[in-house]
């Protein structure tokens, strides 16, 4: 059985020879530390982090990105205290309910990666309705990683590829949660931590990376533009010379 070809990473030209990113992913880290610095509960940091999400999504569309993937809740985050998990799920519900009109109006397609159906049934239904409502939008894809772990994603993809009769890099890539998105160009992590934390391990194989000390609630569209400027200055060889 022959595998379908994997899309080759394409570098768009900004007109002056500088590459433009199509797909950016962000590990949104530092909400708790942001709140601690202000002697506030972690929930306050997460709430301010949602405001940074709104600003990033709006900026991504204005900057011409095709896809923005945000690490919202990892499969390891279930180890956190129950009250913090409850706060995070409540914020997700509130974000979808309050922002879905704007997301849809602005031509944003909502996509979920990860095993989100393990979440509460009412939240799953809310997510499914939002995904269905925005399915035809084409300006920007907003992929939110929920109950996501990259090692688990790769294992699921490999199992599906094996069930179809062939395990190759191409057949695994075709079964990843992100298979319908452009190849990942740039991965940003806030808060000064320098690790991937089980996020998009396969997709990041040739992605550029930017690690910034800025805590996520303080991350603004200007920080996103600065990261894209860094990306534009880099020479991407994809293993060649």
UniProtKB/TrEMBL annotation:
Q: Where is the active site?
A: 29, 77 (proton acceptor)
Cofactor binding, per record: Binds 2 magnesium ions per subunit.
The UniProt record lists the EC number as 2.5.1.-
InterPro entries, per database record:
UPP_synth-like, UPP_synth-like_CS, UPP_synth-like_sf
Coiled-coil ranges (or none): none
Q: Per its record, what are the GO molecular function terms?
A: ditrans,polycis-undecaprenyl-diphosphate synthase [(2E,6E)-farnesyl-diphosphate specific] activity
Q: Give the domain of life.
A: Bacteria
| Entry-linked CDD domains | Cis_IPPS (cd00475)
Q: Name one Pfam family in it.
A: Prenyltransf
Q: Which UniProt keywords apply?
A: Magnesium, Metal-binding, Transferase
Quaternary data: Homodimer.
Described by its record, this protein's role is as follows:
Catalyzes the condensation of isopentenyl diphosphate (IPP) with allylic pyrophosphates generating different type of terpenoids.
What protein family is recorded?
A: Belongs to the UPP synthase family.
Spell out the protein name for this chain. Answer: Isoprenyl transferase
């Amino acid at each position: 059985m022959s595998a379908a070809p994997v899309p080759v990473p394409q570098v768009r030209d900004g007109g002056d020879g500088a590459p433009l990113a199509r797909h950016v992913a962000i590990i949104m880290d530092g909400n708790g530390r942001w709140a601690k610095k202000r002697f506030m509960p972690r929930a306050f940091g997460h709430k301010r982090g949602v405001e940074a999400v709104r600003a990033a999504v709006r900026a991504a569309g204005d900057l011409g990105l095709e896809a923005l993937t945000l690490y919202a809740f990892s499969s390891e985050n279930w180890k956190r205290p129950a009250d913090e998990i409850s706060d995070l799920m409540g914020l997700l519900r509130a974000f979808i309910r309050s922002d879905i009109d704007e997301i849809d109006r602005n031509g944003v397609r909502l996509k979920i990666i990860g095993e989100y159906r393990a979440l509460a049934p009412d939240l799953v239904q809310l997510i499914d309705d939002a995904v269905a409502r925005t399915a035809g939008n084409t300006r920007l894809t907003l992929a939110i990683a929920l109950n996501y772990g990259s090692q688990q994603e790769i294992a699921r993809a490999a199992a599906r590829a094996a069930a179809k009769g062939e395990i190759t890099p191409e057949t695994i890539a075709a079964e990843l949660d992100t298979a319908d998105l452009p190849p990942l160009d740039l991965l940003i992590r806030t808060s000064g931590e320098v690790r991937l934390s089980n996020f998009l391990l396969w997709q990041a194989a040739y992605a550029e990376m930017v690690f910034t000390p800025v805590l996520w609630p303080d991350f603004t569209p200007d920080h996103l533009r600065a990261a894209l400027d860094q990306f534009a200055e880099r020479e991407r060889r994809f293993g060649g010379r």
